[in-house]
Amino acid sequence: MLDLFADEQPWQEPLAPGAVILRRFARAGGPALMQAIDQVAGVSPFRQMVTPGGYTMSVAMTNCGGLGWTTNQRGYLYSPLDPLTAAPWPPMPEAFAALCHDAACAAGYPEFQPDACLINRYAVGAKLSLHQDKDEADLRAPIVSVSLGLPAVFQFGGLRRNDPLKRLLLEHGDVVVWGGPSRLFYHGIQPLKPGTHPLTGDYRYNLTFRQAANNE
Ligand code: SIN
Ligand code: FE2
């Protein structure tokens, strides 16, 4: 199909105080990011984690960087080791670090230095229920979230679980950054609809960059 929008330039959409969507920001870097995802997953494979409540998550996950987000029977935690391989998570690929830095700068967070990148892989029907990102030690650092491949509906609410939700379609290359007053806003992903994307096939991928450790 002829893609009439192939040349479109990124643009910004304000989302909430401290939060912005950088539309198409990661699109040009898509192939390099996908290649880096494959390399990370070759060392620390995608796996469906089990919540402390015993529920198997529909999203498959892996991590790169000094710390990785994971689960165990007691809760959610950041660990320097991949529990599946008992080895450190793969290092943050250069393409990831560069994109994250550029996005954080564009969103007004030039100081952001992520030490963790959670990689989410959504197959048809996979979803992420409404949650807050609150396992990080220093909540002054923002979240940088990169969407690749199939589109998905992102829900973005407020500080309370039952605050009204915005529903936004996130497409290939869109980057959402939230921090400051919206750092703890509830968010989630509605079940992925079937489709095929030229770069990612049947999947949607999401990279979530965080500063997990307290740097002080
Ligand atoms: C997340 O909240 O960790 C992921 C959000 C997304 O997949 O866009
Ligand atoms: Fe999240």
Task: Report on this structure.
This protein is mainly beta. The protein has one domain (12-210): Alpha-ketoglutarate-dependent dioxygenase AlkB-like (Jelly Rolls, Sandwich). Helices cover 12% and strands 33% of the residues. The protein has 2 helices and 15 strands. The chain has helices at residues 30-43, 94-106; strands at 11-16, 19-23, 60-64, 68-72, 75-79, 81-82, 87-88, 116-122, 128-131, 143-149, 152-156, 166-170, 175-178, 187-189, 204-210. A 7-stranded antiparallel sheet has the order 1-2-13-10-15-8-3, covered by helices on one side. A 4-stranded antiparallel sheet has the order 9-14-11-12, with no helix packed on it. Strands 4-5 form a two-stranded antiparallel sheet. Strand 4 and strand 5 (75-79) form a beta hairpin. It is globular and about 45 Å long. The N and C termini lie far apart (51 Å).
Strand order of the largest sheet: 1-2-13-10-15-8-3
- CATH level-four homologous superfamily name: Alpha-ketoglutarate-dependent dioxygenase AlkB-like
How far apart, in Å, are the first and last alpha carbons? 51 Å
Average predicted confidence as pLDDT: 96
The structural class is mainly beta
